[in-house]
Design brief:
alpha+beta, four-stranded antiparallel sheet, single chain, DNA-binding
Length: 288
Amino acid sequence: MPELPEVETVRRGLHRLIIGRSVARVSHDTPKSFPNSPQDVHSFVVGASVTDVRRRAKVLMIDLSTLYTLVVHLKMTGQLVLVGQTRFGAGHPNDSLVGSLPDKSTRVTIDFVDGSQLYFNDQRKFGWMKLMPTDEVPHMTFMKKVGPEPLEADFTSWQFAARFTRRAKTSIKAALLDQTVIAGVGNIYADESLWGAHIHPKRLVHTITAAEFQHLYTELRIVMNLAIDKGGSTNQNYVNAEGKRGSYMDFARVFRREGLTCPHCGAEIIKFKAAGRGTHICPVCQVV
DNA sequence: CACTTGACCTGTCCGC
DNA sequence: TGCGGACAGGTCAAGT
C-alpha cells in the first residue's frame, strides 16, 4: 500500500527526526525481514549516526556515517515509526494508528543513544530492511531497472509517453503499475489518475493517444502531489514516521468508493479486477 | 523478450 | 460463536 506519496511522507518525517542520531543497539527477528549478520550490524550500524534519509521509487535509504546504508522497502504493511521525545510533539493523539511499541509486527528495533527508538513494523512480512555499503545501493537490481521519478521537475510528458512503448500490448493499468516503466505508482494512484484522465484501466497501451498520455501525465502528478500534501493515504495500516495517518483517502475520487457517485458525472462507481488488482472506475467517464 | 499468474504473509470481513 | 474462503496489494520467480 505505501506508494510514492506515502514513502515520501515517511522520508520527510525521518529526515526531520533522525538525522544526527547515533545508534546504540539494533535488534531484529527473522532473516527475511533483516538478512544481515549480527557482525555486520555491530561493525557498521552500532555507533554510527544517521547522515541522510533518501527515497528512490518506493524504497527508502537511511544513510549512516560508516558509509553504509539501511535500504528499506515497506511493501504493503511496513511502517517506520520513531518513538521518543518528539512523538507527541505535533498533531492530535487520535491521529495515531499504532499502540505501544514494539508489538507483534515489529521486525527491527533501532535504539538511539538519546533514548528514542526507530521501529520497523511489518504485519505481513513482505517488506525488508537490508544493510549494504552506500556506494553499492545504485547497483541493486531494482535500482538499475526502476523507471524515472514522475514528480521530478525535468520529467516531461514526452518522456512519460515514451516509457510506455515497451509495454504496447498490455493494459494501461498494468503498465502504470510496472516499476520499470514509471517509479512509485501503485494501485491507489493508478486508479485515481486514470479516472482523472478519463481512461479505462483495461485500454491497451497502443490505443492510448498522445493527448491521453499528456492528460494522464498531468493527472498523475496532480494526484501524487496532492497525496504528499495530505500526508499519504491510510487505507489499511500505513502511518508516517510519527505513527500518524495520512488523509488523502478523504480526497479520493474513485479508490475504495464503489457504490458512491462519481464527482464528475454522478454515475455510480464500480469495482472489478484489472491487472490482478481491485480496480475502481466511473463506468460513464471511463470507457473501453 | 513481452506478458501473465502465483507465491510470499497475516489479519479482517463475509456468508453459513 | 466458529470456520472456511475471499480479499488486501508490491514485487519477483516461474510459467506461457
